Amino acid sequence: MSNVTTKVFPTKQEAVSLVADQIETLIRDRAAAGKKAILGLATGSTPVALYQELIRRHKEKGLSFKNVVSFNLDEYYGLPGTHDQSYRYFMNQQLFDHVDINKADTHVPNGTVAEDKVDAECVAYEAAIKAAGGIDIQILGIGRTGHIGFNEPPAGPATRTRKVHLDELTRKDNSVFFGDISKVPHYAITMGVGTILDAHRVVLLAWGEAKADIIRRTLKDTPSDSCPASWLQQHKDCLFVLDQAAAAKI
Ligand code: PGA
Question: Which one of 44, 152, 169, 207 has the fewest beta carbons within 10 angstroms of its own beta carbon?
Fold first, then answer.
């Protein structure tokens, strides 16, 4: 039995407004209490509209990100943060450079760590999340393979931050950003499904008909490693925010 709450909106803009409200409330409540807000952030085309709305609230409503600490889900293995397809670069461009967040409080897995240091890097990433008190709100997109973060099938709730091999469908989907599939890395470092399930609240976003089949499988199929996102059914506080096209098959 799924615990997931699903909200469907006519447009992406209305959908991101609800999610931005939740993030704004968290940030302001924590700031009023003199505390940090811990956000889990995602990359890809899906969260861009959300980041634009957060930037708008920063510029027009004075929403400050000074008390925000962020942890991104994943990073391509082999790409430095200066590479225009790295997720560190993406986050700087799409959000961090436009708000008053302290860059030292923004965490993205290090994609250039040496092979023999990968495990230590992953353990340190998990430890940093724990030391911050855990993630208050984790934002997710979803891949057509059923991946969350870069947890390609098979991946289950026991998985933690680690180096993973990317599915060919994911490399093909992401090749639009690289211009050519041969340029898409084969490996990434990602939080595990278990890391994501540890977040206090999870909000998954999906737009467009290309996501309708995987959203149906994620919500309706019995949780299994063949659709890593389906494990979200077992999370106690998980919200799916969808546009009508992504929700068409549920
Ligand atoms: P997208 O990717 O937002 O570019 O569709 C989502 C994902 O792979 O998690």
Answer: 169
Name the β-bridge partners of 137: 39, 201
The structural domains of the chain, with segments of one domain joined by +, span 5-243
What local confidence, expressed as pLDDT, does residue 144 receive? 95
pLDDT tens for 135-157 read 999 999 999 999 999 999 999 99
Q: How far is the CA of 35 from the centre of ligand 1 (A)?
A: 31
For 36-54, the pLDDT digits (tens) are 999 999 999 999 999 999 9
45 C-beta closer than 6 A to ligand 1:
yes
Spell out the CATH class of 5-243.
alpha beta
| Pocket probe mutation, ligand 1, options 43, 45, 46, max atoms within 8 Å of Cβ | 46
**What's the gap in Å between 32 CA and the centre of ligand 1?**
34
pLDDT over threshold 70, residue 1: no
